[in-house]
Please model this.
Amino acid sequence: MCGIVAYLGKKEAYPILIKGLHRLEYRGYDSAGICLSNNANLVVYKNRGKVSDLEDLVKDVNLSGHIGIAHTRWATHGAPNQCNAHPHYSENEDLAIIHNGIIENYSSIKQELAKEGRTFHSDTDTEVLIQLIDYIRIKNEIPLSEAVHLALSQVVGAYAIAIISRNDPDTIIAARKGSPLVIGIGDGEFFLASDATPIVEHTRKVIYLEDGDIAEMRLLKDGKSNLEITNLENVVKTPPIQQLEMNLSMLEKGGFEHFMLKEIYEQSRTVRDCLRGRVNAEQNNVALSGIIDHKDKFLNARRIIITACGTSWHAALVGEYILEELLHVPVEVEYSSEFRYRDTVVFPDDVVIAISQSGETADTLAAIEKAKENGAFVYGICNVVGSSIPRATHSGTYTHVGPEIGVASTKAFTAQVCVLALIALCLAREKKTISEERYIQLIGALCDMPLKIEETLKLDEKIHDFSKIFTYSRNFLYLGRGYNYPLALEGALKLKEISYIHAEGYPAAEMKHGPIALIDAEMPVLVIATNRGSYDKIVSNIQEVKARKGRIISVVTEGDEAVRGLSDFCISIPETEEMFVPILASIPLQLLAYHIAVLKGCNVDQPRNLAKSVTVE
Ligand code: G6P
Model:
């Protein structure tokens, strides 16, 4: 949450910063702001709303400067208004800061500083931090970098910050703890950002800062530049320079109206990419190096716990069903936010799988730390290469779907389920809990998935057509059984997050224990009815809805006639193994949510109040 970007070099900073903000806008869009260092002055412009509102604000201003910092905000402390927007100045406008994270002890620091005569202009924790740094700097007559070290050792909480100074206009100081920061190293110039997306078009050489790192980027008189990274104890560090593998085209809409639609359509490719090099259809083999290297941990596990948030948590639920079916090992799925705080019992012989698209979700990171403290082996399933979770886990697998920019997760979900299936297949063969015949069948079904996704995407027009009927529905119910129950949850989440229609997902049989009371002619009920095992039961559930005049939208397997006959609208998807239906059937649910949201005029890629990367708890 909150995106930060900074530039220091020979070029004009504003175009670089504003483009960077657009790339990071998925992290929050309550307000945006920029500070440029110009003729020994720090000039700040900030505005409530989106990055485009900031651009409107400055459109007639001559913005020049070769050093600058910029921020797009997801509000935590203080209302999302102009005054609370970043950057924030210190008392005499000597320093300016941008910040992603939360300073938890800001209130007590603020009181102390107020006693010393400091005044505050915003309600933010960020302004308190820059005032503290400035206070320490002046009181002790020390350089800014020393003051940053001292101040950061006093604060509790999470931060990724960038600071510029009017007295030292050739320097940017950045630091991170709990929130991500990447430095891009150009030719005599530096870029800094919350993730690599604003950097990739300028340089491919990056350093991912670690918790506790403080970086000082400086332009030297001879046209060269210098970067020094220290930890909080002032010990100099030399982290490796890494090579970015991202393409610029991955960050563009590629002709689609929205990133979300592009990402839905990418899924045939992203699933193929996720399986590539891991499934060998000719040799009927699944190989995941992270699993093979640590197979003893998994095979001797007392239990597998999967922890995640949001859509990743839904993928985890599908994973629970797959792992229990194929591996015969007990699996528990827990929200990371619950796992981290409650009195969780974790044994040293448990394996914990953490799933996260962004690799930065604060609760999931904290759950990982807790699992490690309890001695468990922790395995990550992440998408963003180089993010914090892959670095915090003992081993893991990347989903390799490329940047997911739409706030509502789509292609990450299908790839997460694929990875969980691969893990289960790999281990089930080792454990001999699967017959060779079944193993080969499932590999075949996985390998067919990209083509079947392409087939499923052809339903788009039909889904668009009947979305019009439901555009102004106020409620929606999603029902599924077995593997389709987590999918019902995911379908409901997609709809509510982007169209603001209240939607609930339920295991179909549980409908009788509450939601059935809501059903009337105004209530659309989406039923995923592909199960072979419990087909008759789900047909009965549909009858129960119809008896109360509910309108049925069904997702069925091609060739199904019985459920079609009971449905007001029916979507047929290609036949596949029951455990892989969530991969295929998620696509019509994503498209339905997308079209309803577009028809309602909602901002699909940036739904209100949400952010893609939740770096605060
Ligand atoms: C936010 C996003 C969701 C995502 C969730 C977990 O709520 O809007 O799309 O599923 O965070 O994020 P993660 O990056 O850990 O998968």
